[in-house]
Amino acid sequence: MFPTENLLLIAATLLLLSIIASKASGRLGIPALLLFLIIGMLAGSEGPGKIYFDDPRLTQLVGIVALAYILFDGGLSTEWHVIRPVFSKGIALSTLGVLITAVSVGLFATLVLGFSILEGMLLGSIVSSTDAAAVFSILRSRDVQLQGELEPLLELESGSNDPMAVFLTIGLTQLIISPDGSLLDLIPLFIRQMLLGMIMGYVIGRLAEIFISKINLDYQGLYPVLTIALVMLTYGATASLGGNGFLAVYLAGLIMRKKDFLHRRSIMRFHDGLAWLMQIGMFLVLGLLVFPSELVPVIGTGLLLSAFLILAARPISVFLSLALAKLNLREKLMISWVGLRGAAPIVLATFPLVAGVSHSDTIFNLVFFIVLTSVIIQGTLIIPVARLFQVYGRTQPARPRYPLEFIPTASPDSGLVNLEISAQSGIAGKKIVDLHLPETALVMLVNKKDKFVIPSGGTVLEAGDRMMVLADQESIEAVRSIFSIPEAGETALEKPLPPYPEEDVQ
Questions:
Q1: d(CA 245, CA 223)
Q2: How many Å is the Cα radius of gyration of the chain?
Q3: Does the structural domain 404-506 have CATH classification 3.40.50.720?
Q4: HSE-up of 252 (CA within 13 Å, CB side)?
Q5: Those residues with Cβ within 8 angstroms of residue 252's Cβ, 6 or more apart along the chain or in another chain
Q6: Ramachandran quadrant class, 243 (left: phi over 0; alpha: psi -120 to 50; beta: rest)
Q7: Count of other CB atoms within 10 angstroms of residue 211
Q8: Where are the domains of the chain?
Q9: Which one of 59, 101, 128, 448 counts the least CB within 10 Å of its CB?
Q10: Cβ-based burial of 285 (10 A; exposed 0-12, middle 13-18, buried ≥19)
């Protein structure tokens, strides 16, 4: 047993290496999650680190906790108005698509690789879902820009398809352990898990946003701690009742994001950092658990399964589940490619290990190999494939991100207006002090060609500048009247803008 100080030193070293690896991943064109796995493997008993770790039950616990917080952060950072247009498509992919993938891989493993039908279906179920951690981290990087509805659709799918994979994995594991069971027994299990998951997620999400705003804690630092407890409560209570805890935490985060609540921005930032910590910790532990020497015997079988999953099972599931969707061939092919497998399948592979299912070691090693190939091949080639299918690049310019956190006051009358200086206005070329704004109106930031300036009265406004003005409702109307242009056929100064980005200012 390592002394406490040595454990802390090892943990800190691995975390620092992972953070450095995440920085290097962008320049190398390699997904950061792959580097986290490699660091874990190198730290393991067969690597230079020589850390012996062989505890599937502890790995499963770490994985479940990490996935819960990653999914909650995914829901909390997903804007409802963005996913609403793709909601039906995303649900089709996360339910029917997962089922088709599981059946396709299961039949392939049974007919070609000699697995029993239940073992093949179990393997297919484990690798049936795309991984939220992998998809979120890759799609939200600066270099990946997909057109149209592709990004929100892929994020919604990856955040919502784990519950279906968990259900199939648990159900088939139980069938293998208890041969007297029937596939029909999975129907009531499915209904109970999904129904309870949706109800608990919705109810706790709604109650959480009210509770956070009303509790009025004396210390602001306790609000993130409160949400940590709420995530554990959501997953634990739902799973204890027989529901799907992963669905509940994702839905709770999604429901909370729809409403304003106290300290939302700081809570979102906290959970973004916590999700990264969970991703790093989970991949490091998974890397420690695997023994690279045991992957060698499954290379041939693993390559066959990986090829079938990437080139056949995933495209089949996408085209069938989105058969009625208004997406062109190139978009469906791109969705098929971004079917990244990550930590979730490896965590699910620990369920048969813990349950003592026969050949569970082989299944775990195969799943780990499939994840490696998926992240290496699909993850690193997302941008070239997007360019090949002509879906790379945003159709609209990215919204500016302001280096400011605005916490709402108790008064509902205060707000922000985001104004753009028109070239036709008489304000262009004037100083802020010459605008004679109301005393209660505060110009907080000026965006000059994506460079942010903290303004003073002498700041000169130019055409194309964006001003962020904080004021109460009465002063906002006065500001708008000052920024209006006399009726002489000229265009309005205040350019119509979409609602101010929620992730930037609240």
A1: 22
A2: 25
A3: no
A4: 35
A5: 72, 75, 200, 201, 202, 204, 205, 208, 230, 231, 234
A6: beta
A7: 13
A8: 4-388, 404-506
A9: 448
A10: buried
CB-based contacts of 50: which residues, under 8 Å, 6+ apart?
44
Transcribe 227-282 into DSSP letters: HHHHHHHHHHHHHHTTS-HHHHHHHHHHHHHHS--TTHHHHHHHHHHHHHHHHHHH
Structure tokens at 468: 């962020």
Please list the alpha-helical segments (H only) found in 161-221.
162-177, 186-215
Which single residue is written with the structure tokens 């190139």? 330
| pLDDT tens for each residue of 107-159 | 999 998 888 899 999 999 999 988 766 676 666 654 567 777 888 888 888 87
Longest pairwise C-alpha distance within the chain: 84
**Dihedral-angle region of residue 73 (phi above 0 means left; psi in -120 to 50 means alpha; beta otherwise):** alpha
Q: pLDDT, tens digit, for every residue of 394-439?
A: 544 445 555 544 444 434 455 677 777 776 667 778 888 777 788 7
Tell me the C-alpha distance between 265 and 188, whole Å. Answer: 40
Instruction: Order across the sheet with 442-448: list the strands.
Output: 415-420, 466-471, 442-448, 451-453
Q: What is the CATH number of domain 4-388?
A: 1.20.1530.20
pLDDT digits (tens, 9 = 90+) for 220-265: 889 999 999 999 999 999 999 999 999 999 999 989 988 777 777 7
